Amino acid sequence: MGKKWLKIVYEEKNSSKLKKHYRGWAKEYDNDIKDWGYAYPKQLRKIIDKQVKIPRKSKILDAGCGTGYVAETLKELKFTNIIGLDYSEDMLKIAKSKNIYRRLICQSLNKKTSLRSNQFDVILCTGVLTSGHVGPNAIKELIRLTKKNGYLILSISEAIFEKLGFKKELERRKNELKTKIISNRFVATPNNSHSAYSRMYVLTKV
User: Fold this and answer.
1) Going by C-beta distance under 8 Å and a sequence separation of 6 or more, which residues neighbour residue 31?
2) Which partner from 73, 91, 187, 192 sits 20 to 30 angstroms from 42, CA to CA?
3) Residue 93: its pLDDT value, please?
4) pTM, rounded to two decimals
5) pLDDT at 28
6) In angstroms, rounded to a whole number, what is the distance separating the alpha carbons of residues 121 and 61?
């Protein structure tokens, strides 16, 4: 399927069909996004190395972790207290094999999760808040799970930031979140013609 997968998953509106797509893609996912120049690991490293100080003992939720491709950067940076959450069992099987996570949870961010409130120092959510995947309502849940003064590190595509209501939702949560960093725009997968411009948002829970 190659480059077609990106177009397929971001245009799919049915949750059950989307899960089937990821089942079919799981084994080739890491190779494909590496070939496409997946930008989120580099963006995350830039944030942690240069822009915010995050203690290595921090408890981190990788929300929508997929195969753990982005969290490999956290492992390289010596973070060890990481929980992964994704709704695709097939992607989680790949993530488990990497020995990155203390625990993996198969749940959807489109619903309230079973996780207790106010427990994470950092929530990472990249390539997830987008068309066909997880909508702006998930931001409320991510806030619930974050400790006071904790970080939310989110990627949101420019194309859907206003269109799907992410801008409005962040404005609605302005009394709960403080914006620390909004990155320059970048192409999420520069070697794939179906990609779009994205930005990283680093927010703190007040």
Assistant:
1) none
2) 91
3) 96
4) 0.91
5) 84
6) 8
End-to-end Cα spacing for the chain: 44
Q: How many residues does the chain have?
A: 206
Q: Which two tokens stand for residue 112?
A: 């309230």
167-184 pLDDT, tens digit per residue, is 999 999 999 999 999 999
Q: What is the four-CA torsion angle of 188, 183, 78, 66, rounded to 10 degrees?
A: -30
Distance set, CA 101 to CA 13, 33, 60, 114 (Å)? 29, 21, 10, 18
- Residue 1's pLDDT is 46
Tally of CB atoms within 10 A around 102: 11
* Interatomic CA distance for residues 23 and 89, integer angstroms: 8
CA–CA dist 73, 149 (Å, integer): 23
Residue 45: burial class (beta carbons within 10 Å; 0-12, 13-18, 19+): middle
- Note the helical H segments in the chain: 4-11, 15-35, 40-46, 71-76, 89-96, 138-145, 158-161, 166-172
Residues of the chain with pLDDT under 50: 1-2, 12
Return the pLDDT at 134: 87
Domain ranges of the chain: 4-205
Q: Does domain 4-205 have CATH number 3.40.50.150?
A: yes
